[in-house]
Amino acid sequence: MIADPQIARAFETTWPAAEYASVGGLVVGRGRGGGGRVSSARAARPDWSDTDIARAEAVQRGWNEQPMFRVADDDAALAAALVAQGYRHGTPTAILAADCAHLGALPVPPMTAFPIWPPLAMQRDIWRDGSVSAPRQAVMDRVALPKTALLGRITDRAAGAAFVALDGPVAMIHAIEVVPALRRQGVAGWLVRMAAIWAQEQGADRLALAVSRANTAARAAYDRLGFTELGGYGYWSKD
């Protein structure tokens, strides 16, 4: 899914499941309502088997979670095995990264974006009113790495929120939400740049993120900021 091992590790550790179960060549995450990333099974080794798929399904059902697999774009074998068992592909997602130095070269205007931890109630409200529910916010709370929440402001109003955490030289930004009435005014871009500045201060040199391929507007914005694609994945589930 991600050829770069440092980014591959940060992708998992900066947005962790509540617990994990190893099932042969697969690893299964327990999301507790935290979304597909943390509620899916994925290949941990190339020697998985059809029996492992069935065992992963059993683990997920035992957790009262719907069976779901996260499959790298280049993992044709696992995709084919899931198709044979009635799974369908959905939510194609790209993984992007950029240099923190490049992103941080443009200074963030004062009081436009800044880091705060723990998050303020207004940040949690922005997340809740968007797509970052309380169980998704719980993912942030359990991250055991350097982390912070970002608050974006425009016209003296709280306008956006994001979460960033780092594992060694790689930081990942998650949960970028902008108040609907204040979108298309550059808030998300400033949040990303502030994430890079904060990450550099913690010793990281790259910032990564995941974005749905269907979100063409966001993808274009990330391209303009200097992000490049490193890989991709999709979620596989049954009706």
TrEMBL record:
Pfam families with a match to the protein in the record: Acetyltransf_1
Gene3D superfamilies: 3.40.630.30
UniProt domain N-acetyltransferase: residue ranges: 106-239
PROSITE patterns (UniProt xref): GNAT (PS51186)
Keywords per UniProt: Acyltransferase, Transferase
Name of this chain's protein: GNAT family N-acetyltransferase
Source organism: Paracoccus methylovorus
